[in-house]
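Sample 1 of the test manifest.
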Amino acid sequence: MKNKIGNIVIVAFVILNIVVWFVFPPEYDGSDTFARRYAGEVLGSTVIILMSCSLFLTTRPAWAEPFFGGLDKMYIAHRRVSTSAFLLLFVHLLTVPISVTDLRLGNYLAMIAFTGIVSIVLITLAPRIAFLSKLTGNTYEGWKNLHRYIGIFFIIGFIHALTVKSLHALVAISWVQIFFIIGTVSYLYTEIFGRFFKKYLPYTVEAVNHPNNSTTEVVLRAKKDSIRKQRAGQFLFVRFPQEKILSEAHPFTISSAPHEDVLRVTVKACGDYTRHLFGNLKTGMDAVVEGAYGLFDYKTGGEKQIWVAGGIGVTPFLAFVRDMKGGLNHDVDLYYTVRHREESIFVEEIESAAQKNPRLKAYIRYSSTDGSLTIEEILKNAGGNIRGHHVYMCGPLPMVQAFEKKFSESGVSAANIHYEEFNFR
Ligand SMILES: Cc1cc2nc3c(=O)[nH]c(=O)nc-3n(C[C@H](O)[C@H](O)[C@H](O)COP(=O)(O)OP(=O)(O)OC[C@H]3O[C@@H](n4cnc5c(N)ncnc54)[C@H](O)[C@@H]3O)c2cc1C
């Protein structure tokens, strides 16, 4: 329940906004367009509230993680809240009376804010629209850089609200101003002054290993202070400032155990950054690390657990396995599935941990030769009943979604199904 509070609060703000506008309505000014302007202001202020919550989430507040279920889930909330704001923006536009002869500043600002927000959001929602993707070079980095400007359009949108011919509703407008301040401060924090507060810690690349021909294991040693004490399964953001392409911060799970004196991340080459990292990262380079984030933690789950890893999604489970040291307080069936044997990493280490720990059973699956992993097989190995089990999953989204459905159908409650979201977009 605790991990739902964040989303509930956002919905509560929206409801409260409607209540405030009804309890403290604007003074009737005798015009025929009053009702449309009133409805438009309620909608417009809801857009401001949602956008401000969305901007707040991008500040990555570690203290808010428990209320959303981890930073990865906060990004999902950010996406949903932004999409809702975007859709309401259209409804707002259709509701308010627009006059082409009214040339006041607020109307120009509305056009600028609307066009800016729509262009940026369209690129997010439809990254394959050819002419829009040209603006971003069709890369995540390009999209992220463009996405940065959304806060400017948020501010323009609010100034528009103050400079159009608005209704007289002091309480309601003052209430919305609180959200404008939250959104603006969050935006400025993310883009400008956050760097003076956030802990970006200097590390050195101590070793670069290649466990197979598409994966890089980066070993990082703190130059001075380490990142805040992490739990197995958490992730960090890392960048390597000496290399242009690698100087952008990317999230990776910490695949080493918390007790190790170095941090390790294990990275699959799948796009620009990760391919460049595979070929160009060198021992001795500087690294800047931020973290640790995330609440994907097997220690908070029940005694009987099922872990399902697909491809590079094995990284949090590597951290779990490495964290066991003396033993394991849970009965765990670990499934690690990859297409071909050559794609697998650290299999011997996982198998050896399973030999040493009788409570850990490891099932390695090469789907091209063994066929895909099935729920029937998982059920059989668990003795037929998994109702009380806790499930931890990390891997390609279609795999995680398909198993989530099958685990639910097999009686595992939603609260017992945990998964790590590898996609922040
Ligand atoms: C919590 C978390 C943990 C992760 N752990 C691992 C791991 O242990 N090992 C691993 O190989 N991969 C991990 N990833 C995925 C990894 O971050 C992406 O594969 C990598 O950033 C892709 O970058 P690219 O430029 O090579 O690929 P691109 O093709 O540019 O991007 C592919 C996708 O990766 C994501 N992505 C790209 N750049 C960023 C960025 N700067 N910030 C956030 N997301 C981005 C986007 O969803 C994008 O659509 C993790 C992701 C998250 C969110």
